[in-house]
Amino acid sequence: MARGLADIGAEGVLLAGAGRAILLQIANPRVGHGVAEHSDFAERPMDRLRATMTYVYAVIYGSKEQLNAVRRAVNRAHAPVRRGPDATSAGYSAFDAESQLWVVATLYDTAVTVYEKVHGPLDDETADGIYRDYALIGTALQLPPQMWPRDRSAFAEYWAAQVDALRPDAKALKVAKELLYPAGGPRLLRLAMPLARFLTAGLLPEHVREAFGFEWSPGQARRFERTMKGLGRVYPRLPQRIRHWPRDYYLKQLAVDAGATHA
């Protein structure tokens, strides 16, 4: 039986690709300049992660009321993220459809990349279903449905062209450094950062990895492949309540927040 995004979206292992998705996003100046000038997520990465994952989980699994609530929250956060073109910037807007398309594309490609490294290749029917479902992440905001590439083949062309053009500038490099080498924040988060940097580097396209200044030797590449194979052996055997804990946690927090709002 064919599966879709709802069948894989709850897998907590997908969060291993969070750093990859963020760095790909900010390497595009349409997104990166807005993040650099309007976001404090490098100082509060867990808040950014919570906001992103709560939105994604609400789109996939939430009620209509929950989706409307997170959509309003995202739009409020996006409202001030805009700047007209000038001598130093081509300008940006968080409501720009091209920018939203790129963000959703990075989330989709990263999720599939991580899932297949851990669980193995998706069959074509399942992969097509997941691809179609992912459009909802963007169209729930301002992305026109027709902008989502019509099928996986069209997406592959779009993705290759976009990634090939990525050249992270000084603003993107600064945000990446602040994110990957945090000076503060929870101690547990800082202890986890060497692993997060390693996974991020291994998952990035080669020229993007180099542009962000990651050192990557053949030995590191072999260690990365061993790590992913090890995850592939261990992770699928974990109880579902552990594998789906992030989804359940964020949706529970959303329900709590909604209850507090209406109290």
UniProtKB/TrEMBL annotation:
Protein's name in the database: Uncharacterized protein (DUF2236 family)
Occurrences of domain ER-bound oxygenase mpaB/mpaB'/Rubber oxygenase catalytic (ranges): 8-231
Organism from which the protein derives: Paenarthrobacter histidinolovorans
Species lineage: Bacteria, Bacillati, Actinomycetota, Actinomycetes, Micrococcales
InterPro entries, per the entry: MPAB/Lcp_cat_dom (IPR018713)
Pfam families: MPAB_Lcp_cat (PF09995)
